[in-house]
Amino acid sequence: MQKISKEGLIDFEKKIADLFEKGEIPYLIHLSGGNEEKLIDIFKNINEDDYIFSTHRNHYHYLLKGGSKEKLENFIMNGKSMFVFDKKLKFYSSSIVAATPSIAAGVALALKRKGSKSKVWCFIGDGAEDNGHFYEAVKYVDGWDLPCVFIIEDNDRSVDSPKKERYGNSQFTWPNCVIRYEYIPTYPHSGTGKFVEIKKQPMIPENKYKTNNTDFNKNNKSKMKFKDAVKLAMENLAEDKQVIFVGYNVLHGSAYGTLKDIPNNQRLETPLAENLMAGLAMGLSLESYKPVLFFERHDFILNAIDAIFNQIDKISDISNGEFNFPIIIKAVVGSKKPLFAGITHTQDFSELFKKFLFLDIYEPKSSQEVLDSYKNALLKGNPCMIIEKRELYDQEL
Ligand SMILES: Cc1ncc(C[n+]2csc(CCOP(=O)(O)OP(=O)(O)O)c2C)c(N)n1
Known about the structure:
CATH class of the largest domain: Alpha Beta
Number of domains: 2
CATH architecture of the largest domain: 3-Layer(aba) Sandwich
Bound molecules: thiamine diphosphate
Oligomer: single chain
Strand order of the largest sheet: 6-11-12-10-9-7-8
Largest sheet: 7 strands, parallel
Helix content: 25-40%
């Protein structure tokens, strides 16, 4: 791995700070500074083959992983300071606070299953430590002894607020997979704001929202119970041994019985933590698994909305195609009969998803469409969502 010194790191950030203050960078940027020595020490333990998950403040991590200054500067000048991705260097970042720990856990799970020697290093700030999504991932990594280390870069600030003003006197402690170092930042959160005018116009990408409701027709060859078609579609998928069903109730409840004949090693029963589930699926997919992420009711997807909207759906665009999560999201809309489980167990968010997601959305209405949807989804190998209506399950269609 290319080595960069403390001075090299500081000089790089100084150059960017100067350009920013002169109004040459019309984008939000976050500069590091103050944490060079601790980071250099940590990176002595990091190997080329290891993954790095970084944050909005990723410049130092990227340079220390061996990323080139020119490439990084190019990212920054083009509005990607917070969005540095490099597949070759196994480098992933996120501008969404606490979005990466669950993905890191997923990659670590894949590495362990494969018997790989590589490790995952996931950097977060003390602000992200406040977030429940971090807890889910830490508990999982700790419980399954996964090759993943979380590093809290504690500058006692979330934007401008210190820990005490956020969580009082909490002395909460983490297990051994979490390490922490403290540093005093040398730059304010988003620069000094001293610049007089912005000299360049930012490039704002076009909003690419599209309606992508794939409609299969009409040659409804195989009439059978909708539920039997779903079960058959799952078995067809599982013939591909890279396919893995991820979620809770995939093993015991077997997704309303539709997975009951799938081998256990292709069913990953997860904690009851939807964002973590989605992160695990993302991480697994980065290591060539083909996850089917199961949500037994639409209502519960809301707990994973960050993972789906900001990561699975957008990351291919944000990372210029460096990363893609070819995940099939299997999402069931709860039925109101014969038992009504209440409003928060029977909501149908299909229209919302169609409006805001880029990924393909399938809404099969017959058995044939179920079979076609899943077959097509696996062949295409892109992220997609297949919405099953539970009220159709017992109908012959
Ligand atoms: C989910 C989410 N909420 C809020 C923000 C806005 N935001 C960006 S950085 C930041 C502070 C994060 O603090 P910390 O994790 O300690 O990182 P630091 O900037 O101190 O390195 C906030 C609130 C965000 N990007 N994502």
